């Protein structure tokens, strides 16, 4: 009796083992038939280099033709027109000018009472019988002797001034206004002032009081 039961138990165990093996082989075949899974790379976050800022809504984007300024790109700003107004001299400037005129041998010298409103005396220079007054926007030379143009004289043009007669002389493309007040010869030139403005400066020349 025991032998018969033992035989049945052995057959049952063999069937269970065969069933487990079959299920295991089936699962392995399914896994082998499936394609390998690939891992997608995480999206790269765009960064801004140190020292730069990106405007909102313009992350790394550039509008065609945009140069950082609206309107006409790359156009330099226009300079404001020069205005003519009264010129003033402080005590220190008056002293420097007087000493320079004395050293240059110019007994009677004149200073413009009008000029560019932003103008100011920059420096003075002296030479034999020649006083040079350098402003930021113009140059004035004064001498008891006639000041003659140096270089290739291209043209001369006489002009009437309220304090006398002047003459525009063009040398190498640069114009200089020459005039004489009493015994002092004067020459005025400027790269920034117009001819009309420089004539206004010449008409305002006066002895320092």
Fraction of residues in helix: 25-40%
- The helix/strand class is alpha+beta
Task: Tell me the span between the first and last alpha carbons.
Answer: 151 Å
Output mean pLDDT. 79
Q: Spans with pLDDT under 50 lasting ≥5 residues?
A: 43-71
- Biggest sheet, open or closed, and with what strands and sense? 7 strands, antiparallel
* Overall number of strands: 11
* Succession of helices and strands: HEHEEEEEEEEEHE
- The main sheet orders its strands as 4-5-6-10-9-8-7
Based on the structure, what is the oligomeric state of the protein chains? single chain
Structure annotation, total helices: 3
Rounded Rg: 48 Å
Classify the beta-strand content into a percent band. Answer: 25-35%
Task: Write down the overall geometry.
Answer: elongated
Please give a structural write-up.
With 209 residues, the chain is an alpha+beta fold. It contains three helices and eleven strands. The strands form three sheets. The chain has a seven-stranded antiparallel sheet with strand order 4-5-6-10-9-8-7, with helices on one face. Strands 1-3 form a two-stranded antiparallel ribbon. The longest helix is centred in the first third of the chain and has 32 residues, at 2-33. The protein is elongated and about 150 Å long. 17% of the residues are buried.
List strands and helices in order, with pairings.
Blueprint: H1 2-33, E1 84-86, H2 91-104, E2 110-112, E3 114-116, E4 121-127, E5 130-135, E6 139-143, E7 153-161, E8 164-171, E9 174-181, E10 184-189, H3 195-203, E11 205-207
Antiparallel strand pairs: 1-3, 2-11, 4-5, 5-6, 6-10, 7-8, 8-9, 9-10
């Amino acid at each position: 009796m025991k032998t018969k039961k033992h035989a049945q138990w052995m057959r049952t165990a063999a069937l269970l083992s065969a069933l487990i093996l079959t299920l295991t082989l089936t699962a392995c075949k399914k896994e082998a038939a499936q394609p390998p899974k690939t891992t997608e790379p995480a999206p790269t976050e765009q960064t801004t280099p140190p020292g730069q800022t990106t405007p909102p809504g313009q992350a790394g984007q550039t509008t065609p033709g945009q140069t950082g300024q609206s309107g006409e790109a790359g156009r330099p700003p226009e300079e404001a027109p020069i205005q003519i107004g009264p010129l003033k001299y402080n005590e220190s400037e008056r002293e420097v000018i007087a000493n320079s005129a004395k050293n240059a041998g110019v007994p009677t010298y004149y200073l413009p009472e009008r000029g560019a409103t932003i103008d100011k005396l920059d420096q003075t220079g002296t030479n034999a019988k020649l006083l040079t007054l350098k402003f930021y926007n113009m140059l004035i030379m004064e001498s008891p002797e006639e000041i003659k143009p140096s270089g290739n004289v291209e043209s001369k043009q006489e002009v009437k001034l309220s304090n006398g007669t002047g003459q525009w002389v063009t040398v190498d493309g640069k114009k200089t206004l020459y005039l004489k007040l009493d015994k002092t010869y004067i020459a005025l030139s400027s790269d920034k002032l117009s001819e009309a403005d420089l004539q206004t400066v010449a008409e305002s020349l006066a002895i320092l009081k």
